[in-house]
Amino acid sequence: MHFSEALELMIELQKMDSGLDELEKIQKVTRQAIATLEGGLSGAKARLQEGKKAQEDLAKERKAAEIEMGSLETKIKKYIGQEAEVKTNEQALALKHETEKAREDKGKAEEKVLELMFREDEGKKRVQELSGELGQAEKKLAEDQKALETKIADCEKAAADKRVERKAKLAEIPEDLGTAYESLRNHGKKIAVAQVLEDQTCSGCKMKVPPQVLNEIKKAMAIQRCDCSRYLYVKA
């Protein structure tokens, strides 16, 4: 096989590999999209849990205020019952002061209970909203994830078909050139066969191609490689 034919086969192989690279990129981006959707769902779940926890805390606080209110009511009744037992004006004034203080504290406790009940009602509405948001997020995730997973599966099938074609194409290339090509790819040089551009630079590394090398490429005297190890060709 003439080296020019082998070089053409390598260019065709590289086009296949570029297609495989693109499919791999699409799959990677699609998986990232799925992860983003799942992250959004996790956020919705976390917000709902925070809302429920806030509700539980408010309920505990209201219960404590109600207990305090009941305790103060008991204390007020006790003080009222003691009014008939006082024997001096000093004791009567002291008892009156304690009764008024207990009533004042009870009033504050009642206000706190009402405030907490209002906040609980608002919290219930918020929890309902968050539950709705979570439901919508779950529905959207299910729909979008199905579409994205189908896209990944399609890419995987297309990639599998291309790998079969690639294997056949690689087998057509002389073993030494095929091995060198694979080595370049494996070392991160996705462009293993680089075109010499109009400004006489390698499309892979952007380095200037020496005139002598360029002349030999144009005359098809021998296969040439850039200083970056890539195989070079000139577009017809």
| CATH class category of the domain at 16-173 | Mainly Alpha
Structural class: mainly alpha
Radius of gyration equals: 40 Å
Kindly report how far apart the N and C termini lie: 20 Å
Can you tell me the CATH topology of the domain at 16-173?
Helix Hairpins
Contiguous low-pLDDT stretches (5 residues minimum) are none
Largest sheet: spatial strand order: 1-2
Helix content: over 70%
Number of E strands: 2
Shape estimate: rod-shaped
Q: Which sequence of SSEs, written as H and E, runs from N to C?
A: HHHEHE
The CATH level-2 architecture of the domain at 16-173 is identified as Orthogonal Bundle
Count of DSSP helices? Answer: 4
Largest sheet: 2 strands, parallel
| Rounded mean pLDDT score | 93
Strand content bin: under 5%
